[in-house]
Amino acid sequence: MNTSTVLAAAGQVSGGEEVTFWILAPLALIGAIGMVWARNAVHSALFLVLTMLCLGVFYVLQAGPFIGMVQIIVYTGAIMMLFLFVLMLVGRDASDSLIETLRGQRVAAVVLGLGFAGLVGTGLYRALNGVTAVGLDQANAEGNVQGIARLLFTKYVLAFELTSALLITAAIGAMVLAHIERRKEDKMDQVATMKARFRPGNYPGPKPGPGVFATSSSVATPARLPDGRLTDRSTPAILPQRELTAEETTLKGTER
Amino acid sequence: MNTLLAQDPTLADFGRDPWWLVLIKIVFAFVFGLLATLLGVWFERRVVGYMQVRPGPNQVGPFGLLQTLADGLKMAFKEDILPKAADKVVYFFAPVISVVCAVTALSVIPFGPMVSIFGHRTPLQVTDVPVAVLVLLACSSLAVYGIVLGGWASGSTYPLLGGLRSSAQMISYEVAMGLSIVAVFMTAGTMSTSGIVAAQGDATRLTIGGVEIPAPGWYAILLLPSFIIFFIATVGETNRAPFDLPEAESELVAGFMTEYSSLKFALFMLSEYVAMVTMSAVTTTLFLGGWRAPWPITLWGDANTGWWPMLWFFGKVLMLVFVFVWLRGTLPRLRYDQFMRFGWKVLLPINLVWILVLSGLRSIEDWQSRDRLLATAIGAGVLLLATLLWPSRKPAPKPTPQEQADNRPYGSFPLPPLDLQVPPSPRTKRVVAEREPANIATGSDSREV
């Protein structure tokens, strides 16, 4: 039981708590507003990180150290990091376009947002209306972590497990949709590549360069194999092949 | 034993210091981080030099001790380059985030027991909270932001790749790390660092033949799998070799800090070494008994009192830092997919199974000793049978080279004869023939007569 718990239970606010609140509350608000206003997606995410960090500190201030630290580790550390990961893959210059692609989207979003807020607000109000707070003293009687653990694994164990099942289903669903399973036969590992290269009928060495054993040094002249045959492996496919005629290759009498 | 236990600080001992004492402790932790960097760079270069049979830095100061200081000064006076494509604010803040997170983690590390400073009895630890280990995890998970944002804000390809690698790496290895700490929580029953150190002190005592032997209390021995996995994850979390993929110089130039120069680069460097020392200190606290003296020293009664424990603590941290350097001097860097597979498919399942076994062992702790033995024996027997009866695939006998050569189809690439013997060089005979006259000149050869 530390001093902040005692003070909070007595309904008082200590000086340190007040100072911390007045420093961090504007920061949290700036983060929230900046998240909406920032044009760059990564900046948006960073503003959200700021807000989440401030919220984590608020939890700690209000004698909930466990939830505060979990907020920082899970939301700031893991989830926002995944967000950033995806945003970086998208590209750093991708900023939001302000063109409305769906007609009436903004109005619908505002209405739905307000409706959802009202729904959650009334739900919370109805749920907590008749409840009298037992106070932090009783809730944290065995320690903050132990108190949360007791509730989580007794009263709310079903809700907790259902939530985790939902999350796992979502994760596996995303993996099934995104994952392309290649059959084992289709996989070309290093051994398979090497065997294909030395398969009978395949020439494993480098291709002959143009002009090897040829009658002319032109790129268009196909190379000759050691047995005298022409090979068209040495010339690019887009060039018309040109082999000098016997008349062209014979001496023209200029050496005399 | 009573005097020893009185040395252990409890959570109630924190938050009672006057402001100047708090200031002294904070400055001490900060200076410890900075000094550890200065000496750590020198230590690493000397040790790696010794392993590679070369002297290492030995010119500036005694044994080259001041080399890092000289390098740091030089770095401060270099030009601070800001890339044109950089995102200026984020580029500036990224190294700051790295350093702040690395140093903050030192605040919940217990350096020693209760001591008396200017008449105040106070624990040698900046502060402790009921969830101190979670604070450490939070610091390490936030430290990734420095690297990732630094990579993104540089506005160039290699840093971006380094940042992406780093974020994926940290998320993967933090899971393994968190799970190995779960075993420590279960055994210690607390999340405060001073509480975990205290829990490693009072070990159960075995009575064998009337002699009372204290069983080892360190979690490195009791929870060996957790310790090993935690240390591996620590190496991954601090971006040290062989897991230094975000800054792999053979692939990414310098990874996330390619575009950084001058003091900002120095801050990244600082954060890397502070993180290494911090992680060594965390490993010491969680698994190696914290500031407690190891066994032969504990025979001396005062080993765990006063200021002495700080010496044992620094000794353990130094040992772990040496292991970090040792790993770097020994192991080649992993490929990225091998690294990810290792984290998700090896460390994570082993950790989960180990936690299951541990919780099973803990749940039968209250049973009678006969039932307990029976349950353990049944579990071990099932495991043994499964290992013995596991179907093993018999590999087909390998064909000889001659068989392989005979089985090749028509048109295969020509093969030299397998029993090829190199004929003697025709030049050999000539050399012998030319030598013949030299023998005549000596006149000692009887065949010439």
TrEMBL record, chain A:
InterPro entries: NADH_UbQ/plastoQ_OxRdtase_su6, Nuo/plastoQ_OxRdtase_6_NuoJ. It holds the Pfam family Oxidored_q3. Its EC number is 7.1.1.-. It catalyses: a quinone + NADH + 5 H(+)(in) = a quinol + NAD(+) + 4 H(+)(out). It is an enzyme of class 7 (translocase). It is a multi-pass membrane protein. GO terms for molecular function: NADH dehydrogenase (ubiquinone) activity; quinone binding. NDH-1 shuttles electrons from NADH, via FMN and iron-sulfur (Fe-S) centers, to quinones in the respiratory chain. Couples the redox reaction to proton translocation (for every two electrons transferred, four hydrogen ions are translocated across the cytoplasmic membrane), and thus conserves the redox energy in a proton gradient. Belongs to the complex I subunit 6 family. This is NADH-quinone oxidoreductase subunit J.
Automatic annotation (TrEMBL), chain B:
Belongs to the complex I subunit 1 family. NDH-1 shuttles electrons from NADH, via FMN and iron-sulfur (Fe-S) centers, to quinones in the respiratory chain. The immediate electron acceptor for the enzyme in this species is believed to be ubiquinone. Couples the redox reaction to proton translocation (for every two electrons transferred, four hydrogen ions are translocated across the cytoplasmic membrane), and thus conserves the redox energy in a proton gradient. This subunit may bind ubiquinone. It comes from Micromonospora wenchangensis. This is NADH-quinone oxidoreductase subunit H. It catalyses: a quinone + NADH + 5 H(+)(in) = a quinol + NAD(+) + 4 H(+)(out). One of its GO terms (molecular function) is oxidoreductase activity, acting on NAD(P)H, quinone or similar compound as acceptor. The gene is nuoH. Keywords: Cell membrane, Membrane, NAD, Quinone, Translocase, Transmembrane, Transmembrane helix, Ubiquinone. NDH-1 is composed of 14 different subunits. Subunits NuoA, H, J, K, L, M, N constitute the membrane sector of the complex.
